[in-house]
Automatic annotation (TrEMBL), chain A:
This is 4Fe-4S binding domain-containing protein. The chain crosses the membrane at residues 54-73, 94-113, 139-159, 171-192, 224-247, 287-304, 324-343. Signal peptide: none annotated. It comes from Hymenobacter psychrophilus. GO terms for cellular component: plasma membrane. It comes from the Bacteria. Keywords: 4Fe-4S, Electron transport, Iron, Iron-sulfur, Membrane, Metal-binding, Transmembrane, Transmembrane helix, Transport.
From TrEMBL, chain B:
Its cofactor is FAD. The lineage of its organism: Bacteria, Pseudomonadati, Bacteroidota, Cytophagia, Cytophagales. This is Pyridine nucleotide-disulphide oxidoreductase. It comes from Hymenobacter psychrophilus. The keyword Transmembrane helix does not apply. Belongs to the FAD-dependent oxidoreductase family.
C-alpha cells in the first residue's frame, strides 16, 4: 500500500463531533452581524446605519464569545487542535479562500478607496467624539475593528489556552497593549489637543517616528511632543537591545506589538499554516533583512537631506519614503500581512517583512540570553511543535537532536512548549555561556539538516 | 560497504544516520513497504485528530535523504537469502547486501477472539492501520477499545476527538496496572472520567459479533454483557514482526534473537528495535523493548558495530514519557507498580488532582534515589539522570528539587508543598534547610 500520496488521510474527514445547537446559534449571530455591517455600509441614512452598526457589533461580539466559550471554554483544559487540518476554514479550504479575499478586499478599500466606507465611518462619529473630540475617519474605523478583533479573539485564546499560565498572561498582555496603548491612549491624546502618538510602536516598525519630519513636528508641539521624541529614541535604540538581551524578542513581538497581538489572537486559528520548508526560510532571510537595510538607509538619507548637507537630496528621499510607505507600510503589512492569514498563516508580515522583527531578531540571535531548551532525549519527533510555530520554524529539527532553539525569527509565543505532548520544550532566559549546548542524552547526528 | 536496512522506523533511520556519520563512504539503503519516507509513528494519533497532516509527521524533509546519500526503496522485503546475501523484494528484484539490519518493528497481537477477523476490528501500529481506522470509523457512534495501556488510551482519545462514544475494556483492576502504582493509575482514570469515557475494569473481551456484511456490530465481554459498537480497537500489545527473519532461517523466539552487539544467529545480519529479543539482557533490562527511545538507542548502537566499532547495547538510565489525554507523564529510573524490596516511596499529589510526583529511594543508609514518576509536571531529564547515576540521597534531591523543574514560566511552583509532604511522610529523614532552588522567573 502506498501512503506517499495519501490525501485520503486528511481533508475528506469530518472534523469531529457535529456542532451543538448553541454553537450553531453563535455562528448564526456572527453571520447576521456581518450582514448588519454590510447593511450599515450601504445605508445613507445615518440614524439607521448607526443602528445597524450597533446591532452588528453586538451580534459579532456576542456570537464570537459565545462560540469560543462553547468550543474552548468548557470541558477539561488542555491542548485542543482537533480538526485543524480538516476544516475548510483552517486548512486552506473554500472558507479560507473567501475569508482571505474579504480581508484583502477590506484592506484595499481602506487604503485606496476609503470613500466606500463613508457610511460606516459616520456611524462611529459619536464614539469618536466622546473619545477623541473629533469626527471619525477611516483609521478610527480600522482601529476600532482591529482592537475588537484582538479583544474578542483574545477571549477565545484565553479560553483555548487556559491550562497554561504563560499563554494566559501573554494573551492578556497583548489585549492590554492593543486596547490601552494602541487605541485609547492615542484617542485621548487627540482629545487633549496633543499629537496622536502610539507609545507601543517604535522605529523601524513605525518607520516615520524617527524621520526628521515627524521629529521636528513633535518637538514644535512642546513638552509632551519632546517627551514623545525622547521615548521613541529611547525605546528604539536603548530599551530594545536591553530588553531583548534579557528576554529575547518576545518582550515585544508576542507581548506588546499590535501586529503580534492580532496574530496571536485573531490569527491563532491559522498559525499552523506557516510554511516550514527550507525554501521559505531562505526567502524569509532574503526579504526581511532587505527591508531592514532599506528603512535604515532611508532614515539616514532623510536626516542627511534635512540637515541640508547635500543639496537637492530631499527631491529623491521624499518619493523614496512615499514608495516605502506604499509598498511596505500598506501593501506588505496590511494587505498581505493580514489579508493572507487564512492561507499563509498569521505571521507573514512579522516573518518576511517587519524591519523591527529583523532588528530584534539579530539581537536575539547574537546578543540575548533567550533560548528554547529541549529536555534531554525525550523528543519523539511527533511534529506538534513545528506544526504550531507561526514563524515557520521547523522546531522538531532541533528538538529531536537535543539542541536548544536559537533562531532570529522566534517570537517566543511559547506555543511549541504548550503543544509538546512530552514536555520537551521550555522558553528560558539563561546565561549566555553554553547557550548552544545540546543535551548529552541524545546522540546528535552530525548530518546537515538545516542549511 | 553496502548496508541494507529493512524498516524505516525510528530504529532503522537512527541506524542509517549513525552509519552515515561513522562511514561517509558507505552505501546505505533503507527498505520500507509502509511508507516512502520515514515518519513519526507516535504522531499517527495527531493525523487522525486533525492536528497535523501526514507530511507534517515526517521528521526530515524529503530532500534530506538524497542530500545525505541514503537510498530509499519503497517495497516490501518478502524473502531473505543469507547464503547469497540477498533480499527478495516485492517488486521482483533482489537487493544484494554486505551487512543487513532487520528493523522490522512489530505487529498487533491478537488473542484468537471469536470474530476478530470482522471488518472494523484492528490495532493501530502503522499507516495502513490508520487508513483502515479512518475509513471504518467514518460516521460511527460507538467504539470499544480493548487493553489498558498506552495505545488503549491513545485510541480512546482519538475516537473521543471525533465525538465517538468509547468503552474501554481493561483486564486489570486499575489502568496500566502492570506499570503504574495505584496513585498514578487513579489520576489516569480521572482523566478518563473527565472525558466521559466508559471504563470497564476487570473486564475482557470474550467475542466480537458481526452483522450480515461482515462488519462489527457488538462486543461480548467476559461479564457476559453485549456492547453494541461499530468498531473495535485492539490495544493488548504488539509482537515482533518475524516474517522476514523466519524466511531467512534466522533464530527467533518471541523476537529475533540477538547478542549484546545486536547480532543475530547469521553473520552480518543484525536486528534492532521492536523486533529484536536480547538473549541475555543486562541486569535490570528486559529481553524485548518496544519503545521509541529504545528503538533510537538500539539503532545508534548497532550502527557502531556494523561500521566496525563493536559496541554492546547498554540502555543506560531508564526513561519514558506519555500523555494521557491532558495529563503528561515522565518517568526516570525504576518505578515499578509495586515498591521493590528495600526501597521506600514518597508520593506527593496536588489536591486539585492535576499533578503528582513520586520518588523512590533506598531504605538503607544513604537513601539513594532510584526512580521518579511525574504526572502533570515537567522534570528535567538531564538533572534526574545525574541524580540517579550519582545515587544522590533523597533528602538532597528534595532540597534541590527546583533544579529539575522544567515547567514553563509562570506555572505554579510546587516544591515547598512537596517538601512539606515529605517531612510529614518521612519524619525520620530531616531535610536540610533549602535554598531558593530554581531561579526566579524572568530573573536576570
Amino acid at each position: 500500500m502506498s501512503v506517499t500520496a495519501s490525501p485520503s488521510l486528511a481533508l475528506a474527514q469530518p472534523a469531529g463531533p457535529a456542532p451543538v445547537p448553541l454553537e450553531k446559534a453563535a455562528l448564526t449571530a456572527v453571520a447576521l452581524g456581518l450582514l448588519a455591517l454590510l447593511a450599515a455600509a450601504f445605508d445613507a441614512d445615518p440614524a439607521r446605519a448607526r443602528l445597524s452598526m450597533y446591532a452588528a457589533l453586538a451580534l459579532v461580539s456576542g456570537g464570537t464569545l459565545a462560540w469560543s466559550w462553547q468550543v474552548f471554554g468548557r470541558g477539561p483544559a488542555g491542548v485542543r487542535q482537533h480538526g485543524l487540518w480538516q476544516r475548510a476554514s483552517t486548512a486552506r479550504g473554500a472558507i479560507a479562500w473567501v475569508t482571505g479575499l474579504v480581508l484583502t478586499g477590506f484592506y484595499v478599500v481602506l487604503y485606496w478607496f476609503p470613500g466606500l466606507l463613508e457610511n460606516l465611518i459616520r456611524t462611529l462619529d459619536p464614539f469618536s467624539q466622546a473619545l477623541r473630540h473629533k469626527a471619525a475617519d477611516q483609521w478610527f474605523l480600522y482601529g476600532t475593528f482591529y482592537t475588537l478583533a484582538v479583544l474578542l479573539m483574545g477571549g477565545r485564546a484565553l479560553w483555548k489556552y487556559r491550562h497554561s499560565p504563560y499563554q494566559r498572561i501573554r494573551t492578556a498582555s497583548v489585549m492590554f497593549f492593543q486596547l490601552g496603548f494602541a487605541f485609547l491612549l492615542p484617542g485621548l491624546l487627540l482629545a487633549f489637543q496633543q499629537p496622536e502618538y502610539y507609545f507601543s510602536y517604535f522605529w523601524p516598525l513605525k518607520y516615520d517616528y524617527l524621520f526628521p519630519g515627524t521629529v521636528s513636528s513633535l518637538v514644535q508641539n512642546g513638552g509632551l511632543g519632546v517627551f514623545m521624541v525622547f521615548w521613541g529614541g529611547l525605546m528604539s535604540l536603548v530599551a530594545t537591545p536591553v530588553l531583548t538581551y534579557f528576554f529575547g524578542k518576545r518582550w515585544y513581538c508576542s507581548w506588546v506589538c499590535g501586529c503580534g497581538g492580532l496574530a496571536e489572537t485573531a490569527g491563532d486559528p491559522y498559525r499552523h499554516l506557516s510554511d516550514k520548508s527550507r525554501l521559505a526560510w531562505k526567502w524569509e532571510v532574503r526579504i526581511i533583512y532587505t527591508v531592514l537595510v532599506v528603512i535604515v538607509l532611508l532614515t539616514v538619507l532623510l536626516w542627511v537631506g534635512a540637515s541640508g548637507a547635500v543639496p537637492a537630496l530631499e527631491a529623491t528621499t521624499q518619493p523614496l519614503s512615499k514608495a516605502y510607505g506604499f509598498a511596505i507600510g500598506a501593501v506588505f503589512s496590511g494587505v498581505i500581512g493580514v489579508g493572507f492569514y487564512p492561507l499563509m498563516g498569521s505571521r507573514v508580515w512579522c516573518r518576511f517583512g517587519c524591519p523591527m522583527a529583523a532588528y530584534l531578531g539579530l539581537l536575539q540571535k547574537h546578543f540575548s540570553r533567550f533560548r528554547i531548551t529541549t529536555n534531554g532525549a525525550q523528543c519523539i519527533s511527533c511534529g506538534n511543535c513545528s506544526n504550531v510555530c507561526e514563524m515557520g520554524i521547523d522546531v522538531k529539527q532541533y528538538a529531536q537532536r537535543g539542541e536548544p532553539i536559537i533562531r532570529a525569527s522566534c517570537v517566543g509565543c511559547g506555543m511549541c512548549s504548550t503543544a509538546c505532548p512530552r514536555g520537551v520544550l521550555n522558553l528560558e532566559n539563561g546565561p549566555r555561556e553554553g547557550r548552544y549546548q545540546g543535551s548529552q542524552l541524545i546522540h546528535a547526528d552530525s548530518l546537515r539538516i538545516l542549511s | 560497504m553496502h548496508l541494507v536496512i529493512i524498516g524505516n522506523g525510528i530504529t532503522g533511520v537512527s541506524a542509517a544516520l549513525t552509519a552515515r556519520r561513522l562511514d561517509p563512504a558507505a552505501r546505505i539503503t533503507l527498505v520500507s513497504a509502509e511508507s516512502a519516507h520515514h515518519y513519526s509513528r507516535t504522531a499517527l494519533m495527531y493525523i487522525y485528530m486533525g492536528h497535523m497532516r501526514y507530511q507534517d509527521t515526517k521528521p526530515y524533509g524529503d530532500w534530506f535523504w538524497a542530500e545525505n546519500r541514503l537510498e530509499l526503496v519503497h517495497a516490501e522485503a518478502t524473502g531473505l537469502d543469507p547464503a547469497a546475501r540477498q533480499v527478495q523484494l516485492s517488486t521482483g528484484s533482489r537487493l544484494p547486501y554486505e551487512r543487513l539490519l532487520l528493523a522490522t518493528g512489530s505487529v498487533t497481537r491478537f488473542f484468537g477472539w471469536p470474530g476478530q477477523e470482522l471488518r472494523g476490528v484492528q490495532g493501530l501500529y502503522g499507516l495502513p492501520d490508520l487508513e483502515k481506522m479512518t475509513r471504518d470509523t467514518q460516521g460511527i457512534a460507538r467504539a470499544v477499545v480493548v487493553g489498558g495501556g498506552l495505545i488503549g488510551i491513545e485510541l480512546a482519545e482519538m475516537l473521543h476527538a471525533r465525538g465517538i462514544h468509547v468503552t474501554l475494556l481493561v483486564r486489570e483492576s486499575r489502568y496500566w496496572e502492570l506499570v503504574l502504582p495505584p496513585e498514578e493509575a487513579a489520576l489516569v482514570e480521572r482523566q478518563i472520567a473527565l472525558h466521559h469515557l466508559d471504563l470497564r475494569l476487570e473486564t475482557e473481551m470474550r467475542a466480537v459479533l458481526g452483522d450480515a456484511d461482515g462488519r462489527v456490530r457488538a462486543v461480548v465481554t467476559t461479564a457476559g454483557e453485549e456492547l453494541p459498537c461499530q468498531w473495535v480497537g485492539i490495544a493488548t500489545g504488539v509482537a515482533p514482526n518475524l516474517a522476514l527473519a523466519t524466511s531467512g532461517g534466522i533464530e527467533t523466539d518471541r523476537g529475533i534473537l540477538v547478542d549484546e552487539h545486536l547480532q543475530t544467529s547469521v553473520p552480518d545480519v543484525y536486528a534492532a528495535g521492536d523486533c529484536a529479543q536480547h538473549r541475555a539482557p543486562a541486569a535490570g533490562q528486559v529481553p524485548l523493548e518496544q519503545l521509541w527511545y529504545t528503538g533510537r538507542l538500539q539503532g545508534e548502537t548497532v550502527a557502531h558495530t556494523i561500521c566496525g566499532q563493536p559496541t554492546p547495547y547498554r540502555r543506560g538510565q531508564w526513561f519514558n514519557s506519555a500523555k494521557f489525554f491532558n495529563l503528561e507523564y515522565h518517568t526516570y529510573g525504576r518505578v515499578p507498580a509495586a515498591p521493590e524490596a528495600g526501597t521506600r516511596t514518597f508520593c506527593w499529589q496536588h489536591p486539585g488532582g492535576g499533578q503528582l510526583l513520586r520518588i523512590n529511594f533506598e531504605a538503607d543508609e544513604g537513601h539513594a534515589v532510584t526512580g521518579m514518576n511525574a504526572l502533570g509536571l515537567r522534570q528535567r531529564h538531564a538533572v534526574w539522570e545525574q541524580w540517579l547515576r550519582a545515587a544522590t540521597p533523597v533528602t538532597e534531591v528534595l532540597a534541590r528539587l527546583g533544579e529539575a523543574n522544567f515547567d514553563p514560566e509562570f506555572f505554579r511552583r510546587h516544591e515547598p508543598a512537596m517538601r512539606a509532604a515529605f517531612a510529614r511522610q518521612f519524619p525520620d529523614l530531616p531535610l536540610a534547610t533549602t535554598s531558593a532552588g530554581r531561579r526566579a522567573v524572568w530573573s536576570v
